[in-house]
Write a structure and sequence with these properties.
3 domains; single chain; two-stranded antiparallel ribbon; alpha+beta; 17 helices; elongated
Length: 422
C-alpha cells in the first residue's frame, strides 16, 4: 500500500468503514481497531501512548547503541518521508536483515528528526485493519503529541500478556514457552511469542551482554546448551536436594532436617576417604581429602539445608509450595530460563527461529521428565532463583516470584491453567 500526504485540513484519520470482524493479535491491536472503527481518535492515541512502538533500524546504524536510528521510507510520488511504527502483535517474524527497537510515543514526538520543518509522518501498523496516520505538523499533531506527553515511557511489569494470533497456545512449543512464563510475567513480556523481538534488537543485545556475558552467536549457543543441560545451576544445591529426595523415596515421605544433615555428613565423609574411580585412563586411586576441607564442606552444605528449609517454609505459607511437599530439584531454574534465552538470542539475531524453537521443545521435554506439575515446577524455579540472588532477604527476588506465581495459577488466561504439564 502507498501512503500519500494528508489533506490540508487533516484532523485525524477518517472512521474506518464497516468490515468483517477481525481477530486482533492482542488486546492492544483490538483496542486500536475498535477505537478507529468508531472514530474515537482520543482513545486511539491514548492507547498508542501507553504501549511499546517498534521501529525498524537503519541497517548501517543497528549496532550503534547510543540512540535509535530509524529507517525512513520514501513516497516515490512525492518524496515525502514516512516512519512505520508497529505494535508488538504486528511485528514481522525476526530475520537477519531487519532489526527493530521500541520506544514510547513520546520519543517519536520529541526526537530531533521530528523537529525538522518537514518531519516524516508516522504510520501505525501500515496495511492492517488498525492502521492509522499520525500527522507530523501543527495543528494536526496536537492530539497525539499531547497523549504522548501525558503517557511518558510505557513500562509493563508483573502482568500476563499473550498473543491470541501469531503466538503458540498449545503443544510442545507453547508448553516450553510456559516454562519461561514466570520471567515473562515478571518482565511484562508476551509469554507465547516464539517469533520474539523482546524489547528490541539493541536492548536484547545489551541485556545478554550485561547479564549473561553473551556477545556472539557461539556465546549464545553455549548458554542455551548449558541451561538445557542444567549446567548453570549449582551442583551443591542439587546434591543436597537429591540426597533428601532419595531418603524420602526409601523411607516414604517426610525427611527430618536433622536426619538430612546427618546423611550429608556421612556421604561427604565417605567420599573423602581413599577410593578408586573408573576413568578413561582406567582405574584411578583418589587420595583422601584433608579433614579441615571436609569439615568446611559439610558445614557449608548444612547451612544450605537451613536456607532451603526456611525458603520452603515461607513458600508453603505464601502458596508456592503445597503443604507436605518439598522441592526435589532446582533444574527448573535452568529449564525455566532456557526458553527465554532461546528467544533473547533470536531477538538479538544470534540464532534462527528454528534453533530457538528447538531449544524451547527440548526444555519442554526435560521439564516433563523432572517435574509432575506446574506447581512443583514453579516452586523449584523460585527456590533456584532465591538461592542464586536473594540471600534470605525475602526481598524483590522472592516477592516477584510470589506475584508471578499467583498470576499464573489464578488468571483464567494463564498457560498453566490451559496447558497440561504432562
Amino acid at each position: 500500500m502507498t501512503f500519500g500526504p494528508p489533506p490540508a485540513d487533516f484532523d485525524g484519520p477518517a472512521p474506518m468503514p464497516q468490515q468483517p470482524a477481525w481477530t486482533a493479535p492482542s488486546p492492544i491491536e483490538r483496542t486500536l481497531y475498535e477505537a478507529k472503527a468508531r472514530g474515537d481518535w482520543a482513545a486511539y492515541y491514548e492507547t498508542l501512548a501507553s504501549v511499546e512502538l517498534y521501529v525498524e533500524l537503519r541497517p548501517d546504524k543497528a549496532d550503534v547503541f547510543d540512540s535509535i536510528y530509524p529507517l525512513f521510507h520514501h513516497d516515490p510520488r512525492t518524496g515525502a518521508e514516512w516512519l512505520h511504527l508497529y505494535t508488538t502483535g504486528m511485528l514481522p517474524a525476526p530475520d537477519p536483515h531487519h532489526r527493530f527497537e521500541w520506544a514510547g510515543l513520546n520519543w517519536f514526538a520529541t526526537a530531533s528528526w521530528a523537529q525538522r520543518p518537514n518531519p516524516p509522518a508516522l504510520v501505525v501498523n501500515p496495511g492492517t485493519p488498525c492502521e492509522a496516520f499520525l500527522p507530523p505538523l501543527p495543528p494536526h499533531n496536537l492530539a497525539w503529541t499531547q497523549a504522548a506527553a501525558r503517557a511518558g515511557t510505557p513500562r509493563f511489569k508483573m502482568c500476563l500478556r499473550a498473543l491470541h494470533t501469531g503466538g503458540a497456545l498449545h503443544g510442545p512449543v507453547a508448553h516450553g514457552l510456559a516454562l519461561g512464563a514466570l520471567l515473562s510475567v515478571t518482565n511484562g513480556e508476551y509469554w507465547n511469542t516464539m517469533a520474539h523481538h523482546g524489547e528490541g534488537y539493541q536492548t536484547e543485545r545489551q541485556r545478554l551482554s550485561e547479564w549473561w556475558d553473551v556477545t556472539s552467536r557461539q556465546d549464545w549457543l553455549d548458554r542455551v546448551h548449558q541451561l538445557l543441560s542444567t549446567a548453570q545451576r549449582s551442583s551443591v544445591w542439587e546434591f543436597a536436594l537429591d540426597l533428601r529426595h532419595s531418603i524420602a523415596r526409601d523411607f516414604g515421605g517426610h525427611v527430618d532436617t536433622a536426619y538430612w544433615k546427618q546423611a550429608v555428613t556421612r556421604v561427604l565423609r565417605a567420599r573423602s576417604e581413599p577410593h578408586t574411580v573408573l576413568t578413561e585412563d582406567g582405574v584411578t586411586a583418589v587420595e583422601p581429602r584433608p579433614a579441615e576441607e571436609v569439615a568446611a564442606q559439610i558445614d557449608g552444605v548444612h547451612r544450605l539445608i537451613g536456607r532451603i528449609t526456611r525458603y520452603e517454609a515461607r513458600m508453603r505459607a505464601d502458596g508456592l509450595l503445597a503443604e507436605g511437599r518439598y522441592v526435589t530439584s532446582v533444574d527448573a531454574w535452568d529449564l525455566g530460563r532456557a526458553p527465554n534465552m532461546a528467544r533473547w538470542g533470536l531477538a538479538a539475531r544470534f540464532g534462527t527461529l528454528d534453533e530457538a524453537e528447538s531449544a524451547v521443545r527440548a526444555a519442554s521435554a526435560a521439564a516433563a521428565r523432572s517435574y509432575r506439575s506446574w506447581q512443583d515446577f514453579s516452586a523449584a524455579y523460585a527456590l533456584g532463583r532465591c538461592l542464586h540472588f536473594d540471600d534470605e532477604e525475602f526481598g524483590k527476588w522472592y516477592e516477584e516470584m510470589v506475584s508471578a506465581h499467583r498470576i499464573l495459577t489464578e488468571d483464567p488466561g494463564s498457560p498453566w491453567l490451559n496447558i497440561p504439564f504432562k
